[in-house]
Amino acid sequence: MRESMEFDVVIVGAGPSGLSTAIRLKQLNADLNVCVLEKGSEVGAHILSGAVLEPRALNELFDNWQELGAPLNTPVTKDEVYLLKDGELSKELPHALVPNTMKNDGNYIVSVGNLCRWLAEQAEGLGVEIFPGFAAAEILYHDDGRVKGVATGDMGVSASGEQLATYMEGMELHAQYTVFSEGCRGHLGKQLISKFNLDTAADPQHYALGIKELWQIDPAKHQPGLVLHGAGWPLEEASGGFFLYHTDNHQVVVGLIVDLNYSNPWMSPYEEFQRLKHHPVLKQYLEGGERVSYGARAIAKGGWNALPTMTMPGALLVGCDAGTLNVAKIKGTHTAMKSGMIAAEAINKVLADTSLSIGDTFNALFNDSWLKQELYSTRNFAPAMHKFGTFWGGAFNFVDQNLLGGNMPITLHDTSLDHAQLQNIASAKKIDYPKPDGKLSFDRLSSVFLSNTNHEEDQPCHLTLADDSIPTGSNLSQFAEPAQRYCPAGVYEIVEKEAGPSLQINAQNCLHCKTCDIKDPAQNITWVTPEGTGGPNYPNM
Amino acid sequence: MKVLVGVKRVIDYNVKVRVKSDNTDVDLSNTKMAINPFCEIAVEEAIRLKEAGIATEVIAVSVGSSASQEQLRTAMALGADRAILVETEDTAEPLTVAKTFAKLMADEGAELVILGKQSIDSDNNQVGQMLAALTKRPQGTFASNVSVEAGHVAVTREIDGGLRTVKLALPAIVTTDLRLNEPRFAKLPDIMKAKRKPLETKTFADLGVEVKQHIQLDKVEAPAARQGGVKVGSVDELIQKLKDEAKVI
């Protein structure tokens, strides 16, 4: 029998949404017993985002955040949007033609990891118990099916499943309400969506993979507050776009977001990103600089149309675990925070008056909020790009967002499944990626090294296969096992052995981005939590 | 028997160390910090002595910034009874740390001090030895086994080519090596309890420890980047390159 602890509210994941839930709960009722579990070795260790932050939700959470020292140090001073035509040429979009949602006046360039570190300090100051290094591995249910809480994973279990000398049994955390805020494609959130049929009324969720690097650059080239966005080259086989932000301390963050509905199995988002950095628009800043950090994370970008029901008996789903990102703004932090704050308000109400239902209470608050308005008015943005392509989709979005304020009287739906889009290698054009030069572009392993990722070596593999034969069977013959290319950490390798090809899973390299769980064409890979503290140790990401 | 354990806050061993661009120090901004692994082994050993009924109280001590409270809380979550932070915003030299421990050892009447053999940031390997000299007490360094019996502690030391077991009269100083034990994981309820355990903050002035600077950090440099390899077409070409370019034969 596992030991258990009782709380009023247990929150899974110390990201922007989970921490905002915790903080709002304690602001509303200081007597509530609230705890937050975080699988990373510390708060912020697993957080990776662009990011340009719209401070709207933060203003509501702490109107004195400046006094409290929130790490919003770099206001956006200039927005530039580029269309990259090829490896050399580009065109800057006139400011008047940029959709309003992509303009960043009043926003800040931040490290969301550092924002979370700061939010965690505020939460602890309010009496929230935060437990980094503990992964919620399992959902617990009452006999009537209501969510009872979560259990942390066992520690000190060997690769073959035996108990080591350091074995420590997982622990049950019981709560009146459990809030799941694991981020995009949370492994428990995924189970809840399926168990409670939360997505039956929604379009399928759509995903992208974001890859990001932090660079220390020549101070002479550094323009704090400068924000660059763009699309086009080198992505020919997929939609997506790049970002490059000049943050403080002579650093820039640069990244590429690649939509995961691409069809060419030869596509490698990692290598697309590496060659992107050679384009003059980006190279002008990066050249002569030094790479400080590297990481990757999947993004849930289906928006309003793909948003599942966010409540169920005894639990709520918030932030990117549900999919509250606003793709038109390419921002998810403020919406994730707001969704957590609404969840906290709903939980506080139903705890005070048990005759209320969590679903109705949450929905009423949600429907009255700017969050709903924001997600609803941008519902057509991504489907327009998917349906009409970057150019006509962009034109549609300009009309919808700048002229009609998001009130186009139609709703576009994208009901295709990201993982079902891959075409057979027989009909796909092979892509030749240039070799990295070691100055602007790098190989996977030297990149993974900079993520500071680590997993205790002797533990069960946390990337599980439903059917061991698929990677070297249909995945290999039809798609040349695409995991070798979509994984930004080089976790999956097909190695030739005497008995034929075999799949090697380098689970120690895993960055917890969840792309394999999303993109595997056979949906054969399930990401589960490794031993607590395992995974990347991102600084300033 | 009271046991004093040293706990130092250092950069986490998983984090790749990066040198600041002005070469003044290692860049620690927002990097993950942790208990020095050798200190963690010291904490584990002290807790095992308490569990065995030998130690009556385990006191974790850190000399460092106020952020070191985090590592002291971890030590208490693992089982230390209370903690003392000797707070300083400057980097404390080994001699200063040794003087601090000498004073605390006397004040607390500790019979055993367990320290990590060195910290993974500065790699000095000095505090334990200096403390023994200052207090004129015996030392057992690089311990891979520790056993306490009536008035003595037997310490098995890892030395070149084998093991040496020494018997020290208490009070004594022990520094830990990697193979002494495998530290446990902290349990959630213990992490919560640790928040309510006593943590006392002192200064060097409170303890009457004189701080004198003997060492000045001139600069920190990253190791030279490795040159990329080249593929050679033949053995002859290899020999020619070894002769003419590498000049090793």
Class of chain B, according to the CATH hierarchy?
Alpha Beta
| Shape designation of chain A | globular
CATH architecture of chain B: 3-Layer(aba) Sandwich
Total DSSP helices of chain B: 7
User: How are the strands of the biggest sheet of chain B laid out side by side?
Assistant: 9-8-7-10-6-1-4-5-11
Strand content of chain A: 15-25%
Q: Could you characterize the architecture of this molecule?
A:
The complex is a heterodimer of chains A (541) and B (249). Chain A is globular and about 60 Å long. Chain A has 541 residues and is an alpha+beta fold. The longest helix of chain A has 23 residues, at 381-403. The two termini of chain A are 40 Å apart. In chain A, a hairpin with a 5-residue loop joins strand 9 and strand 10 (147-152). Chain A has 15 helices and 24 strands. In chain A, the strands form 6 sheets. In chain A, strands 1, 2, 8, 9, 10, 13, 19 and 20 form an 8-stranded mixed beta sheet that branches. In chain A, strands 6-5-15-16-17-14-18 form a 7-stranded mixed beta sheet. Chain B has 249 residues and is α/β, with parallel strands linked by helices. Chain B has a single domain (2-245), classed as Rossmann fold (3-Layer(aba) Sandwich). Chain B has 7 helices and 11 strands. Chain B has helices spanning 37-51, 69-78, 94-108, 127-135, 188-194, 204-207, 235-244, and strands at residues 2-6, 9-11, 33-35, 57-64, 82-87, 112-116, 139-149, 152-159, 162-169, 172-176, 199-202. In chain B, helix 2 (69-78) packs across helix 5 and helix 3 crosses helix 4 (127-135). At the A-B interface, helix 3 and strand 12 of A face helix 5 of B. Chain B: Residues 23-211 form the Electron transfer flavoprotein alpha/beta-subunit N-terminal domain. Chain B: This is Electron transfer flavoprotein subunit beta. Chain B: InterPro entries: ETF_a/b_N (IPR014730), ETF_b (IPR012255), ETF_beta_N (IPR033948), Rossmann-like_a/b/a_fold (IPR014729).
